[in-house]
Design a protein that fits this description.
By secondary structure, the chain is mostly helical. It has one domain. Helices cover 78% and strands 1% of the residues. It contains 17 helices and 2 strands. The chain has a two-stranded antiparallel sheet. The N terminus is likely disordered.
């Protein structure tokens, strides 16, 4: 894979000795001298100003480190989910057509955001690997370069969004008011796509550095500002007002994020670091491109699901249910996402420090922790499905279908737990190509055909779509476990 090549297998004990202070990376020696700690190991180098830039301590139990990283991310994910909850709840008075248009527009936004997610994955792998190896100057440099890449990509993405956006709702089978509401929302998001997408990149940098609490703090600001913005703008501008609030809030939060990175010198914005950085940026994008395609393919499959839903008797309620169901279901998988990100940071730094044993231990701890918690949350979704859906919709058809959706998808939570943990470890190691392959198989060879056959051919309607989705979750979990057991991912070396 471009920018990645196999490395030799070294024992954990000998590798640990190789990263002593005598073999510090360029820039690390100066960092230590600034604090009069010449014998400090490279993975604990400090900066002249701001907070210390430190690698994770692998002498501590992996489970406690994983939980310490994941808990702030769980809170950050709860707050991120709350943003969607608030938007969805506050536009419900506009009717189910507004709900359907809002849900469909999010599919288009996720397609665009996949590019920024790819940049985030590439940046996270580079930042965590170099920090784990004690190369703090490179880590700061890659963090800043990732933000600049995000800015560079924003303009062409915005133009592409405006050119293709109107066709999105045709592909999704939207009609009349639903399509109008959807375009009202997504057009505003496209105008501010740079700050909207930068959230992924800055969060990826914070997480790779092990500073997972900062996305949580920033999401507190985001929620408060977005709620106030919705109160002011939705009554006046409708669905479009929700998008205006989101973009304005993103601008505030991203300014704060960049300030934190700059002030603490976790990112270096010196012009010298951007000269001759083309190779690094290309490698970063090449590493993240499979993740971009993976996210795009997921949204492509979502478009396919909306098309299949449009072939069922209760299509409008089905479209609203899919959007609402995913938002409610995120109560469970936001925990999985938190562990996925934390596991990626741990694996990246472990491999940078030549601790393959800790990378493998990270997977074992991540999958067990996520499996238990998501199974419990799946049970909660099954039992309280109707109250959850009733909170977000007053439409009888949406409530009925939403309850069925959540009860069927409750059985998918343990399967998604396995997938989240595995993908996090693979991405942290730089193995981004295999998750793309398994996604393509699970979605296009399993999910869409199964959903169509069950819903249309067998006449099961919307319940057939929901069952097809769960079947694909099972296939995805099986494929990810197969890849982890091969252990090829721990032998990947990043090319800087």
């Amino acid at each position: 894979m471009g920018g990645i090549k196999p490395t030799e297998d070294n024992s954990a004990s000998s590798d640990r000795r190789k990263h002593s202070s005598k073999e510090a990376a360029p820039g690390a020696e100066n960092d230590n001298q600034a604090h009069n700690e010449p014998d400090m190991p490279t993975q604990y180098n400090s900066l002249r100003h701001g907070r210390a830039l430190e690698a994770l301590d692998f002498e501590k139990p992996i489970r406690s480190t994983l939980i310490k990283l994941a808990l702030p991310l769980v809170m950050a994910n709860i707050l991120t989910t709350l943003i969607g909850y608030v938007d969805f709840y506050m536009i419900q008075e506009l009717g189910k057509e507004a709900h359907a248009g809002f849900a469909m527009s999010r599919t288009g936004i996720f397609v665009v955001n996949s590019v920024f997610m790819g940049v985030s994955v590439g940046a996270s792998a580079f930042v965590s690997r170099t920090l784990g190896a004690g190369e703090t100057q490179k880590s700061r440099q890659y963090a800043a370069q990732a933000i600049m890449v995000c800015i560079y990509l924003s303009f062409p993405i915005m133009l592409l969004g405006f050119a293709l956006g109107p066709y999105l709702f045709t592909l999704l089978g939207a009609e009349g008011a639903s399509a109008g509401y959807g375009w009202d929302y997504i057009s505003i998001i496209y105008l501010g796509i740079s700050v909207f997408g930068m959230r992924f990149v800055t969060n990826g940098v914070f997480n790779a550095l092990g500073q997972t609490r900062f996305p949580m703090y920033l999401n507190v600001i985001f929620n408060l500002a977005n709620f106030l913005g919705n109160l002011i703008l939705i009554p006046r501008f409708g669905v479009m007002g929700s998008a205006m609030s989101t973009i304005a809030t993103c601008g505030i939060v991203m300014a704060a994020a960049i300030y934190i990175l700059y002030h603490n010198r976790w990112a270096s914005f010196a012009l010298a670091h951007f000269r001759g950085a083309e190779k690094t940026i290309r490698n970063m994008l090449r590493l993240g491109s499979p993740m971009m395609l993976q996210a795009i393919s997921r949204q492509g499959a979502m478009i396919g699901l909306f098309r299949i839903i449009s072939m069922t008797p209760n299509a409008t309620a089905g479209a609203a249910t899919l959007g609402l169901g995913i938002i409610v279901e995120s109560i469970s998988f936001m925990l999985g996402i938190a562990v996925m990100i934390s596991a990626g940071a741990l694996v990246g730094q472990a491999l940078g420090a030549k601790r393959k044993d800790k990378a493998l231990e990270t997977y074992r701890e991540a999958v067990m922790f996520t499996l238990v918690i998501m199974s419990i949350l799946g049970t909660v979704l099954f039992i309280f499905a109707t109250p959850f859906v009733d909170f977000f919709s007053n439409d009888a058809g949406v409530i009925t279908e939403g309850t069925l959706y959540l009860r069927i998808h409750a059985f998918a939570q343990p399967l998604m737990a396995i997938t989240f943990a595995g993908i996090g470890c693979l991405r942290g190691a730089g193995d981004t190509k295999y998750p793309l392959l398994l996604t393509l198989i699970a979605l296009y060879a399993v999910r869409l055909p199964a959903a169509y056959i069950l819903a249309v051919t067998f006449g099961m309607g919307l319940s057939g779509v929901w069952c097809g989705m769960v079947i694909s979750n099972l296939v995805e979990a099986i494929l990810i476990v197969h890849r982890i057991k091969q252990r090829k991912w721990i032998d990947i070396k990043l090319s800087y």
